[in-house]
Amino acid sequence: MKDRKRKVTFGVKNETIYVHSLLSFLFSFFILLFLLIFFLFSLAILFLFAFVCVFVFLKSTQEKKMYKQMEKKCISV
Fold this sequence. Notes:
77 residues, mainly alpha, transmembrane, transmembrane helix, membrane
């Protein structure tokens, strides 16, 4: 009887270890998935911010050129 109880408890321990390892694998998988999504999202925001900065810089330099051309026309007239 004692041997059977030991075998049964040993089998239950294996099952709990298996479930625990499965849960830890899923938990780590979801954490890695969340970190990957967060990294890609932050990278997309960074590229968007850089694009907006470059667009504003080019727009402002273009406006400065237009103002200089208008000043030249006004001075020549």
